[in-house]
Amino acid sequence: MPTSNDSSSKKGRPTPKRREAQSKRIVSSLAPASSKEEKKRAREQSRAARNASRIAYLRGDENALPARDRGPARRYVRNLVDSRKSIGEYFLPIIFVVLLLSIFPVKALQFGGIALMYAVLLAAVVDGIFLSRKIKREVRNRFPDTATKGLGLYGWLRSTQMRRLRTPHPQVKPGDTI
Predict the structure, then answer these.
(1) What is the C-alpha to C-alpha distance for residues 91 and 112, in angstroms, rounded to an integer?
(2) How far is CA 21 from the centre of its chain?
(3) Could you report the per-residue pLDDT of 80-121, keeping only the tens digit for each?
(4) Which of 5, 15, 38, 161 could form a disulfide with 34 if both were Cys (CB 3.0 to 4.6 A apart)?
(5) Predicted confidence band at 73 (pLDDT cuts at 50, 70, 90)?
C-alpha cells in the first residue's frame, strides 16, 4: 500500500480547477431560483396584502386589529369615546395657536397663550379622569366578566387624539347613543 510520502503514486485524474471544485461544494439553497418577474409579482402581492390588512384595520375588522384593540369591551370603549366630544382632541390645534401667539413680541399675548395651553391641559386631564371612571363603570355593567384594567387609560388616550387621526376610524358619530 503506498504511503502519503510516496511520490510514485498517482491519483489517476487531473487536479480540478478551483471553480469546478467550488461549484461542487455549493449546496443548493432552500429557496428556488426566481426570476425578476416572479420577485416583482411577489412584491406586488405582498404590498396588496399589506394594503388590504391596513384597510381592514382602519375599518375596525376584529381579525385585523392588534391585541390591544381586540374584543367587545375595547370596541365598546372606542364607540363610547367616539360618541362624545372632548377637550383633549382640541389640544394639538390649541398648541399650534399658542406657538403662533408666542411669535408676537407682546408679553400679554404670550402669557395668554401659555395660560390657555395649561388650562386646556388641566381640563383634558380632569376630563380623562371622569371619562376613565365612566368607562370602567359602563364596562362593568355591560361586560360583567371582563377585566377593566387598562380600559380607562385606553379610552382617555383615544379621546386625546384628533378625531380624524384615530385608528381604527370612529364607527359612530358624535352625539350617537351607545
Answers:
(1) 15
(2) 50
(3) 999 999 999 999 999 999 999 889 899 999 999 999 999 999
(4) 38
(5) very high
pLDDT at position 33 is: 61
Report domain extents, the chain: 37-68, 71-165
Q: How far apart are CA 156 and CA 125, in angstroms?
A: 9
Q: CB under 8 Å to 83, separation ≥6 — which residues?
A: 172, 173, 174, 175, 176, 177, 178
Query: Which residue is associated with the grid cell 381604527?
Result: 168
Task: Please count the CA atoms within 13 angstroms of the CA of 103 that sit on its side-chain side.
Answer: 5
Average confidence (pLDDT) over 54-69:
87
Residues sharing a CB contact under 8 Å with residue 70, sequence separation 6 or more, in sequence order: 62
Give the DSSP letter string of 68-100. GG-SHHHHHHHHHHHTS--GGGGHHHHHHHHHH
Residue 98: phi and psi, rounded to 5, are -60, -40
> Long-range contacts for 146-154 (Cβ within 8 Å, ≥24 apart)?
146/71, 146/72, 146/73, 148/73, 151/73, 151/74, 151/77, 154/68, 154/74, 154/77
Residue 122: is its pLDDT beyond 90? yes
Is residue 60 exposed (0-12), middle (13-18) or buried (19+ Cβ within 10 Å)? middle
**pLDDT, tens digit, 9 for 90 and up, residues 27-45:** 656 666 678 888 888 899 9
pLDDT at 59: 87
